[in-house]
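User: I'm curious whether this sequence folds into something compact or stays loose and floppy. Could you predict its structure so I can see for myself?
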Amino acid sequence: MAGNTLSMLEVADMVRHWLRTPAGAYLGQSYGQDIKSLLQQPQNMALGDAFVEKLLKDVPVLQSLPSGTVNVFIKNEGKQRQQLIIDLAGTEVATELLGNIR
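Assistant: Here's the prediction. I'll summarize afterward.
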């Protein structure tokens, strides 16, 4: 069944959808992420690991990527802004912590 593979851009679109979907928006499902809950919290490795763990659970196609190729980090933009960046084996999905997803 050749032709059934996904490009990284399609996978990135799935991650963008996950980021845009509030947690629990689908009845009976925990799918989605509350990005604003990351505000006013210390940014640490445990928080990042929990974020990636939920992402991998909610978007199972990411589990087929090699270990260590799904990463998340925060980039400070000045004193008042932060950007959350999800690196998918070199393809980046970025969002401001206030919800503007690129």
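Summary: The domain at 8-96 is CATH 3.10.450 (Nuclear Transport Factor 2; Chain: A,). The longest strand covers residues 70-77.
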